[in-house]
Write a structure and sequence with these properties.
The protein is mainly alpha-helical and 138 residues long. The protein has a domain of 93 residues. 34% of the residues lie in helices and 0% in strands. The chain contains three helices and no strands.
Length: 138
Amino acid sequence: MSELAGWDVEPEDAPAPRVEEEPALYYGSVDEFVREFIVPTYRRKIGAGGSAQRWIATWWEHPEAVVRLTAIWRAWEALRLDPATGMSVWLRDHADYHLGVLFSDYGPFGDSEETSKRGMPLPYEAPPPELFPDEREL
């Protein structure tokens, strides 16, 4: 009788369990995601008052922005793999919520004086290279 009686133990000649590899990241860092996806996609009127929303080119200087943008990047990476409803879920549950906070007067960019016209990419300034290393290379 085996010491492991009662446990579901594979016989020695059983095939090795299938190990699924985690899908590779599409974007290697939150900065790459912001630079290549968020900045060109969300073309908003940026400024104070009226229908303008808030944003700042140096988003990476604001801890709340880094946390929220990292959250929506990671959610995007996971949900992009769902061809049926992944992007809709990502927009509704992640992007709309977190970007709504970031773009608002009460968010971390609320005091920003930066402006841009509707239809223009969001302002962007590259962070120091060591701040967001490419996670695909770690």
